[in-house]
Amino acid sequence: MPLDAITYTRGSLSILNQLLLPHRTTYDPLHSSTDAWHAIHDMRVRGAPAIAIVAALSLAVELHTLIENKRLSDEAKEVEVFIKEKLSYLVSSRPTAVNLAEAAGRLGGVVGDLCKVEGATGKKVAEGYIVAAEKMLEDDVEDNRRIGGEGARWIREKAAKDGNGKVSVLTHCNTGSLATAGYGTALGVIRSLHAENVLERAYCTETRPYNQGSRLTAYELVHDNIPATLVTDNMAAALLAGKRGGACVDAIVVGADRVAANGDTANKIGTYGLAVLAKHHGVKFLVAAPWTTIDLNTKSGEDIVIEERPKHEVTRVKGPRVGEEGNGSAAMEMITVAADGIDVWNPAFDVTPAELIDGIITEVGVFEKDGSGIFHLER
Ligand code: MRU
């Protein structure tokens, strides 16, 4: 069972098709930014860091092909314009996660600087872009391991309720290897707790309607032999209330698609409800994300654009027939689970206000609010 969402060597990029997981392992090659735009828009690849990296690398592959085929302009300025246009196009694939826009801005800056260098050529600008995009893939795993370590330490010190030193953590959506270049953010925290032998149990929510929890997070937890239990989204309240034989949840850890300057956090739909539940039950609520997910240009959650997805993602589910799930070539069937003709609202994300968040775990440390309840992320 591979956990590599992205496979890349210079000139060649493939993504694990997450619409088919956990039933089928199929890698889709992406040859261009157009291929990547569709893979991101259709959610064959998803998760804020993964979509930024795939977008950046798809353009690296496109530029590599143009160089190899001697079809790239010699003019540095022309290549700069070409790259920036492609980056803007890629950013339009999904609006909420800031990582993609942040990466596009940063890579656009790299290209602008390369263009100003004495003797700049189209090829040199394109090669500089390729190196910078490849660096994103390398850095992400390292950042995630740091996030995992920081989060695990904070939870052990500040969230553990039981005297036995073990903790149980609930997570939502998928924030693991499949949503990043590897290891994961919130799921990376769970991996770190498990590696430190202090994880009693992980709970993952189903995460309707795309089922990132039951299909993807459950797949990763089984893969890593982490003690874990799946619950549907509407079971979280009963779980936090101790209705599972008194089992206790010490912390909820989720990822983020965009953290506004005041700490308000956009993440997978259902996150906000979990934060309200955590407050009611005195459970710590943490957001884990790389520094690049913090968007100081967005003042508060009010300013975050929330993507709305098609109706059929709520009214239909897809998978192999029961009994055929182990057969990698079994046909995938689509069934309807809603009354024909019903109106549907399908927001992909919600915003959790900063007041409900106890800490924001990043690779540079865990941010907490000051005595007046204010995060100082600008520091
Ligand atoms: O719609 P998705 O699956 O892209 O949403 C993913 C999430 O909401 C994740 O929690 C977030 O992107 C962080 S992934 C490390």
UniProtKB/TrEMBL annotation:
A single cellular component GO annotation: nucleus
Pathway: Amino-acid biosynthesis; L-methionine biosynthesis via salvage pathway; L-methionine from S-methyl-5-thio-alpha-D-ribose 1-phosphate: step 1/6
Keywords: Amino-acid biosynthesis, Cytoplasm, Isomerase, Methionine biosynthesis, Nucleus
Catalytic reaction(s) noted: 5-(methylsulfanyl)-alpha-D-ribose 1-phosphate = 5-(methylsulfanyl)-D-ribulose 1-phosphate
Domain of life, per lineage: Eukaryota
Matching InterPro entries: IF-2B-related, IF-M1Pi, IF_2B-like_C, Initiation_fac_2B_a/b/d, M1Pi_N, NagB/RpiA_transferase-like
GO molecular function: S-methyl-5-thioribose-1-phosphate isomerase activity
Catalytic residue list: D257 (proton donor)
Site entry (Transition state stabilizer), positions: C173
Enzyme Commission number(s): 5.3.1.23
Pfam families: IF-2B (PF01008)
UniProt similarity note: Belongs to the eIF-2B alpha/beta/delta subunits family. MtnA subfamily.
Name used for this protein in its record: Methylthioribose-1-phosphate isomerase
Lineage: Eukaryota, Fungi, Dikarya, Ascomycota, Pezizomycotina
